[in-house]
Amino acid sequence: MFAYIVRRVLQMIPTLFGVMLLVFVLFNVFGGDPSLVLAGKHLTAESLANIRAQLGLDKSQFAQFMIFVKQVLTLDFGTSWSTQQPVSDIIGSRIGPSLLLTGSMLVVDLLIAIPLAATVAYFRRGLTDRIVTICCTIAMSVSALVYIIAGQYWLAYKWGLFPVSGWGNSAFHNLWYYVPLPMLMGLMVSLGPDIRFYRSFFVEELSNDYVRTARAKGLSERVVMLKHVLRNALIPVVTTVMMSLPYLLIGALVLETFFSIPGMGNAVVLAVNNSDFPIIKAITVYIALATMVFNLLADLIYKLIDPRVQLK
């Protein structure tokens, strides 16, 4: 196990180098000259030269790439071009609200989707399966914007069950006061496809020969479902969940915008609108690093779920 982890970590090095090279080429070679954006309307040769010197754009491409490599290794991406704040401070202040929203939404989604998917798979082709499938299809057919606007108008403005938007300073207060409505709107969008997706895994496992063998041995349905079917069906579920975890870092763009949540989603939108390359590059590198780490964790979880899995 330890040798496998070391080997995977070493494999991350060339992958990270490739990500850094790709990001550098996209932003520094094809992204245009950011000094023209920062100089604004009052562009002079002197101001343009000063900005290029401050950003290191007057150096060679190789020197600029080495500066970027140093930024990645130290996780220090300098200051934001639009706010002049350190990028690390901006990300540090905004990642909490995003994780509070998307993390709680993911947990509730899994707690609802996995048991419901297993239930409808067990009663497949029955009335329960058909009703749930129809409800999921209808829910998937409605735009996220419709859910958000209707939820804010009826649940918040008309009935006063939730605040329309906003965010506080206390994580506990935010979790119980500001998070429920955007989380509910997010679940309305995600539960339908997740239930149908997870259902397919359980249906596939229920059709395997080992399930018929377990039943022929006289094992109860509870043991068959929990000990055999659930364990094997969780492997693709874990893959799906672990692949989605890195994107929790950038939050929920639409939800954060409509509900005025100061998270990473808002930061991404502002950075794109302002051509704030340092923030965009930092978030891109963070997502790449998180993807590699969570892929490794997914393999380790496979081993915990089923010790027969061979890690290669």
UniProtKB/TrEMBL annotation:
Alphabetized UniProt keyword annotations: Cell membrane, Membrane, Transmembrane, Transmembrane helix, Transport
PANTHER family: DIPEPTIDE TRANSPORT SYSTEM PERMEASE PROTEIN DPPB-RELATED
Membrane topology label: Multi-pass membrane protein
Gene3D superfamilies with a match to the protein in the record: MetI-like (1.10.3720.10)
Organism ancestry: Bacteria, Pseudomonadati, Pseudomonadota, Betaproteobacteria, Neisseriales
Species for this entry: Silvimonas amylolytica
Transmembrane region(s): 12-31, 99-124, 131-155, 175-192, 233-259, 279-302
SUPFAM superfamilies assigned to the protein according to its UniProt record, in alphabetical order: MetI-like (SSF161098)
Domain ABC transmembrane type-1: 95-298
N-terminal signal peptide: none
Predominant location: membrane
Subcellular location: Cell membrane
Family label: Belongs to the binding-protein-dependent transport system permease family.
Domain of life according to the entry: Bacteria
Pfam families noted in UniProt: BPD_transp_1, BPD_transp_1_N
Descriptive protein name: ABC transporter permease
The encoding gene: gsiC
